Task: inverse folding
C-alpha cells in the first residue's frame, strides 16, 4: 500500500486594518501616546470598514493593539462580526522614543528623516525601537495568531508601520522598501498564510471585500450560485 500523502494544513487569512483617523493623523507622530482617540471622521471610517468586513464572515477572531485608537476602531468591527476584541501587545505601534509627539513637518527637516524613508533597516528611533525590532515583534505576534487560528479568517487592527512591515515580509520585500507601501486609515490589507508561503491578496484596500470571502459561508454562497 502506497504511503498516504500528509494532509496540508489550511491557510489562515488575516485582514490587517489600520486604525481610523485621529486629530493628529498626518500632523504628529503620536506613537504610543495614551488618550489619543478617533476623531469624528475616524469613528465614521471605523463604522464603514466594519460593514465592509462583515461581507467576509465568518471570522474566527478580532485582535487589536492596546492603544485607544485601535480598540475604538476594532469595537464596531467586532460587533459586526459577533466577536470580542482581543488585545495583543505585540501589535503595538513602534516605540518612537524621543520623537513621540513631534510634528511631522519638523521631523521631515531632520537629516535622520531621510534614513527613515530610504534606509529604515539601519535606523533606531532615539530612545526607542529600531525598524528591525519592530518587524520581529509584530511578525512573532502574527505568527502566533496564525497558528492559533489555523484555517480561519482573523481581523487584526494595528498601525501603519507594523502593517507595512508585515506586508513587506509576506512579499519577500527588503525592509528598506517598506515606505513604498501606503497604508491609509481604516484601509484593509489581506494576507493568506498558507502551509508553504504567504499570499498577499490586497493592500491598502478601501473597496468591496466580498470577493475575499472564505470559509463555510463563502462555500455555501458559491454552491447556491451554481
Result:
Amino acid at each position: 500500500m502506497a504511503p498516504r500523502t500528509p494532509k496540508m494544513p489550511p491557510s489562515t487569512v488575516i485582514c490587517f486594518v489600520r486604525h481610523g483617523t485621529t486629530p493628529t493623523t498626518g500632523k504628529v507622530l503620536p506613537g504610543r501616546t495614551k488618550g489619543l482617540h478617533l476623531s469624528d471622521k475616524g469613528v465614521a471610517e471605523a463604522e464603514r470598514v466594519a460593514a465592509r468586513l462583515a461581507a467576509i464572515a465568518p471570522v474566527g477572531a478580532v485582535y487589536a493593539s492596546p492603544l485607544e485608537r485601535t480598540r475604538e476602531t476594532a469595537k464596531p468591527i467586532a460587533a459586526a462580526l459577533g466577536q470580542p476584541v482581543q488585545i495583543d501587545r505585540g501589535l503595538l505601534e513602534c516605540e518612537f522614543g524621543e520623537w513621540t509627539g513631534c510634528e511631522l513637518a519638523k521631523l521631515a527637516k531632520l537629516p535622520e528623516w531621510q534614513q527613515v524613508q530610504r534606509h529604515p533597516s539601519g535606523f533606531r528611533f532615539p530612545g526607542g525601537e529600531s525598524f528591525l525590532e519592530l518587524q520581529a515583534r509584530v511578525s512573532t505576534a502574527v505568527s502566533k495568531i496564525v497558528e492559533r487560528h489555523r484555517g480561519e479568517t482573523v481581523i487584526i487592527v494595528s498601525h501603519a508601520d507594523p502593517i507595512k512591515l508585515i506586508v513587506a515580509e509576506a512579499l519577500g520585500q527588503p525592509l528598506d522598501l517598506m515606505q513604498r507601501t501606503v497604508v491609509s486609515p481604516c484601509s484593509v490589507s489581506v494576507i493568506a498564510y498558507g502551509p508553504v508561503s504567504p499570499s498577499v491578496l490586497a493592500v491598502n484596500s478601501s473597496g468591496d471585500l466580498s470577493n475575499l470571502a472564505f470559509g463555510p459561508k463563502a462555500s455555501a454562497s458559491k454552491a447556491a450560485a451554481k
